[in-house]
Amino acid sequence: MLRLENVAKAFGGVIATDDVSLAFAPGSLSAIIGPNGAGKTTIFNLISGKLRPDSGRILFDGENIAGLDETEIVRRGIGRAFQVASIFPSLTVEESLMAAVQSHRRQTLRMAERFRHSNARQRAGEIIDMTGLGAVARDLSANLSHGDQKLLDIALALALEPRLLLLDEPTAGMGPEERWQMIERVRALWQAEHMTLVFIEHDMDIVFEIAQSIRVLCYGAVLAEGTAEEIRANPDVIEAYLGAPAEDAEVAP
Amino acid sequence: MRRSGPIRDMIFGLGVFVLLALLYVLVDDAFVHDIIIKTCIFSIFALSLNLLIGYLGLVAFGHAAFFAAGAYVFGLFMQSEYVGPDSAWAIPFGVLLAMVGSAVLAAAIGAICIRAKAIYFSFLTLAFQMILYSAILAAVPITGGDQGLMGGFPKPVFLGIDLAEASHMYMFCAALAIIAALIMRQVVESPFGYVLRMLRDNPDRAAFLGLKVKLYQWITFVLAGTLASLAGVLQSLLDIGAFPEWAFWAKSAEPLFMILLGGMQTFLGPVLGAFIFEVLNAVVTAHTRYYGLVLGAVILFFALGLRRGLGDYIWQLVSDRREASGRADA
Phi and psi at residue B161, in whole multiples of 5°? Predict the structure, then answer.
């Protein structure tokens, strides 16, 4: 469903993505891992249209989407959530999700009706139930806990009913217990929504536990691909990443 | 209750109109009537600017360009050979012409300004306003240059409304201000209006929700410019002319002050600000030449003392109390 062919991106002289080719099967749950600066988020930025690749093709359902802007790529069915929760602080959770649903339904140019009366409220409620944000639905997004803000970020992406969802470190900045809750929720959403899911993660235990397949990036290039067992046993990976003095998985929020 | 949003707003608007009409009848004082008329005109001006500043998060410094454009288009049309003392269609058509003309101008200026970000957007709006100002000064045969549109124009009676009558002018300004406010209220409470808040909060995220950021910014810019021109039209009717100071950058600062005084988070904040501004203007200039000093002190009080406009301050008090009583009930 998604295929990157020889994608490259450099910032000035710094090579962020170096001839990367990757493929993700429909309905799969995949992880991208790699040390800091390996180019993981850059890959997401290239897929989602925040950056345009210097060369190479990005095929989504067979169509080259490289170079399209983010709104066009979203409309084709690729949603994303961010490493640092990207939300709308002055809107409540429910308002944010209603607006996202309206965007998905292309109702946002309507000036003659009232936002509050919109039938998007029902769908927003479903997403709130699905993501477990019910207790804070009427709270301002700015006042949510860190974990709930990360959830809201994912919920916003879900409102667009994406066929491919990109999650950039869904557990960033969380304590151990919260991490597992979050990742269980992500897995449940993936199963319920029948979508293709790719996530970036630092925590090896989490990756090995839930990802069907894993891509290891290092210095902007693909170092290894495979199942958890294959990655665990790969000598290159052990040397480059797993063997290195335990990298602090915690990323400051 | 929840379904009654637009109807509730219309009833509120009608109530305000009745109150203003009563005020006119009960208080027979030209000084008071003048303050109300100016408050109405500047409410339209400040509310339209607040669409950009308060809701969209774009600080436009050149909003008076559209105020002046409305005034000049209307004034020039009313002075043209097509308009005679019996042209009943002239004023409604002139208002429409001025608004359409300003909308076209706003569409062109907006298309360029929204390409720039943050402070550069502000500077560009200011630059366009100063270009318009220079053009008005330079085009002496048409605009009268620094003298303005002199010589007055007729105010033909239409639909029984005679704007040469002080009472009719008062009601006309009140009615148009209320209608303009109701339109803007509807816009900010619509699905479109919530997109504006999202673009203010986090435009990057909005783009990843499929929203074309610049399209929404442009539409809002055009809408705000068009409504600002209505304020210019009313000012032109009041002064029976149009003057280049209306296109000068300092004119853009006035609605900005009103928004600061009244508050940008509450919909009616700018209206309250316009009222405070006009009362200060009328009262202070009657007693001292140092108007700027007093205005500056008042703004400092709001900025440093309340840390927000009066409307926002009151709204905060009300919602705090509501929350407190809600907790007591529970």
Answer: -100, 120
Q: Do B198 and A114 touch (CB under 8 A)?
A: no
Domain boundary assignment for chain B: 2-249
- Smallest Cβ–Cβ distance between A80 and the set B3, B200, B208 belongs to B208
Q: CA angle B62-B142-B230, nearest 5°?
A: 40
Of B264, B257, B258, B234, the residue nearest B246 (C-alpha): B234
* SS3 assignment, position B15: helix
Nearest CA in chain B to A114: B190
Q: What angle do CA A154, A155, A157 make, to 5 degrees?
A: 65
Give how far Cα A105 sits from Cα of A102, A118, A204, B20, B213, Å: 5, 11, 38, 42, 17
Q: With beta carbons under 8 A apart, name residues in chain A contacting B5.
A: 114, 116-117
Write down the architecture of domain A2-84+164-170+195-242 according to CATH: 3-Layer(aba) Sandwich (3.40)
The domain limits of chain A are: 2-84+164-170+195-242
Chain B hits for A168, Cβ within 8 Å: none
pTM over 0.90: yes
| Architecture of domain B2-249 in this structure | Orthogonal Bundle (1.10)
Query: Quick one: tokens of B301?
Result: 């009080």
A201: contact with B, CB 8 A cutoff: no
d(CA A216, CA A35): 9
**How many Å apart are CA B97 and CA B103, to the nearest integer?**
10
Whether residue A245 is predicted with pLDDT greater than 80 in this model: the reply is: no
B66 near B229, Cβ under 8 Å?
A: yes
Considering only alpha carbons, which residue of chain A is nearest residue B3? Answer: A117
Cβ <8 Å between B208 and A89: no
Extract the tokens encoding A193: 């929504």
pLDDT in tens, B186-225: 999 999 999 999 999 999 999 999 999 999 999 999 999 9
- Among chain B residues, CA nearest to A88: B201
